[in-house]
Design a protein that fits this description.
The protein is α/β, with parallel strands linked by helices and 457 residues long. Helix content is 30%, strand content 28%. Strand 22 (409-415) and strand 23 (423-428) form a beta hairpin. The radius of gyration is 23 Å and the shape is globular.
């Protein structure tokens, strides 16, 4: 068994401050010579990207809905082995999961990884009751220890001291930080989460967060707790279901720019493991692309770059022609939006690539939010007919499918909304587009089939 210094930061609810604490400490320790490996519990791309910027290493998502406990331990161990400190950010409240049993909760992940827990508590308009909250956490799942508490949004020193004395007196858990209420917005939010680091002065924000958090938190005691984490047992030899392939001479373009950048690193790793070469390309830059055998359009916020995307006629035409020629193209969410005929934002309509004769419309309310379960009901190059897989969706856009009753859908969702009524996955020749995001570690065969389709096209 190997020891991996690690800490999990969680809260009583979403918005408790765990993200700010995780970002601030990751940046602080990174600048002081620690090799900090960040992890994000759940499917969140944006928090993971901010953690990557803060820690100076690519963050890894750990998702109990996608992955077995064994795969989670293996992935954590593999990605942590070159670092001397792992920072794991939970999601929502510590015990919040898919049901009343807390399935897929942060607390479950904590037990899978045998990780120390630091609870970040929003102290707005509350004092002694904080101790009652924490007592409840101790009682709810007694097989998990809370190793420290960080008080967030304290009004003043007197307020902080009352809470600290109450917590220590009744719970015997040390208070390791007292962060004051910050009037300024450190990082703006959009769609119930942080704004993209592509659209904000990320470095300045992270430096400010690091200074605030580190000056009000006992960073050394946190390191001591991380160093005393128990050894991690039952680590699998491999997290992959298939052996690595030789280079198969297949170039798969992956769009990475300010419009599309939502990719799980393991998805790209899986494609490379299946024998592909990854070529980064842009939808915003009119420069010619290299010769490609396939194209992967991930998620993102194309609406923030809608004008630039619509004006880049060279690349729009190129993508359209590649699709018409039968190039294997896999598009998720934002990539799906780009492949439609247009994107409506408010009163403005932006022409897009036009592979699918649909108009996308950006709305004020989410049209799909949460995990999905898909069954494949139509032949396509990427998923075997009759197979089932899980994923997630998070989109504020919708398309006018009611005007196209003859469309054939590849996916039937038993959980999730997709393009509407549980349908998802449009197919045109070898182009597959859907709202569902997948994780390669939970969808066996996706990478191999993608590469095989590229070889055969």
């Amino acid at each position: 068994m190997i020891k991996y210094p690690r800490l999990t930061f969680s809260g009583l609810k979403g918005g408790s401050g765990k993200t700010i604490v995780s970002l601030g400490l990751s940046r602080y320790w990174n600048k002081r010579g620690f090799s900090v490996k960040p992890f994000k519990k759940g499917p969140d791309y944006i928090d993971a990207m901010w953690l990557s910027r803060a820690a100076g290493q690519i963050a890894t998502n750990l998702d109990p809905f996608f992955m077995s406990d064994s795969i989670i331990r293996g992935l954590f161990a593999q990605k942590s082995q070159q670092s001397n400190l792992a920072v794991i950010e939970g999601n929502r409240g510590l015990f919040d999961g898919l049901d009343s049993d807390g399935s897929c909760s942060t607390s479950g992940l904590v037990k899978t990884l045998q990780s120390p827990v630091i609870l970040v508590v929003d102290c707005t308009k509350v004092t002694r009751t904080v101790a009652a909250f924490i007592l409840g956490c101790q009682e709810l799942e007694s097989d998990m220890n809370i190793d420290g508490v960080i008080l967030n949004n304290v009004a003043n020193e007197r307020h902080a001291n009352i809470i600290q004395e109450s917590v220590v007196k009744y719970t015997h858990i040390p208070v390791l930080g007292k962060i004051p209420k910050i009037k300024s917005v450190l990082i703006p939010e959009r769609h119930m989460g942080l704004i993209s680091d592509q659209e904000y002065a990320a470095e300045e924000a992270l430096e400010n967060i690091s200074e605030i958090v580190s000056s009000h938190v006992d960073t050394q005691k946190l390191i001591d707790i991380a160093d005393n984490a128990s050894s991690l047992a039952d680590i699998p030899k491999s997290i992959w279901s298939f052996p690595p392939a030789d280079d198969r001479g297949v170039n798969i373009g992956v769009v990475k720019d300010a419009s599309l950048w939502f990719y799980y690193p393991e998805n790209l790793e899986a494609l490379e493991r299946a024998g592909a070469r990854i070529c980064e390309v842009s939808l915003l830059n009119p420069d010619p692309w290299p010769q490609l055998n396939g194209l992967y359009l991930g998620g993102g916020f194309p609406e923030t770059q809608a004008d630039e995307l619509s004006q880049n006629q060279v690349i729009k035409n190129h993508v359209y022609n590649l699709s018409c020629m039968g190039l294997p193209i896999y598009a998720e969410c934002g990539g799906f939006m780009y492949l439609c005929s247009s994107l409506r934002c408010g009163n403005t309509i932006y022409p897009m690539a036009g592979v699918f004769p649909l108009q996308m419309e950006l709305t004020k309310k989410p049209q799909g939010h949460g995990y999905t379960r898909a069954r494949v009901v139509q032949d396509n190059p990427f998923h075997p007919l009759g197979s089932e897989f899980v994923g997630h969706e998070f989109h504020y856009s919708r398309c006018n499918i009611e005007n196209h009753p003859d469309f054939v859908y590849c996916l039937q969702l038993s959980k999730g909304n997709g393009v509407g009524d549980g349908k998802d996955g449009l197919i045109f020749k070898n182009t597959f587009a859907c709202y569902t995001h997948l994780h390669a570690l939970s969808v066996q065969g996706w990478a191999e089939r993608f590469v095989q389709a590229c070889e055969e096209s």
